[in-house]
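Tokenised fold entry reproduced for absentees:

. . .
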Amino acid sequence: MKHLMLASIIYAVLALVGGVFYREFTKLNGFTILSVVHTHYLILGMVFFLLLVLVEKNYSFINDKVRKYLLLYHIGLNLTVVMLTIRGVVQVLSLNVSSAVLFEIAHLILGISMVLVLISIRNCVKDSF
């Protein structure tokens, strides 16, 4: 449970850093397309892990299998945010670079791992009733 809380705090800090970067970088260049970096870390990072803290406290669903899913989730979330940042910087600077495939893979990893974690929670909650 401590790891979940730590993850939530780390993603809160990353969300704040991402928000400041987006605001200052886009303001300097006259764009506002990097705002999703901040919200991805805030919602999919901080809020997701805060909710997992509450679920873990009540149902103790985390085992070795779920830890692997959460590691995959961390990788997917951070790769998604890195790709969002790269995509936003490329657009702001009007560079001609395509990162669509890696961006889609990052979202796929994030989505699959989220579903696996939710299925694990469902199985645990189902067993407790």
Remarks:
- The chain has one domain: 2-128.
- The helical segments are 2-29, 35-59, 64-92, 100-128.
- The two ends are 22 Å apart (CA to CA).
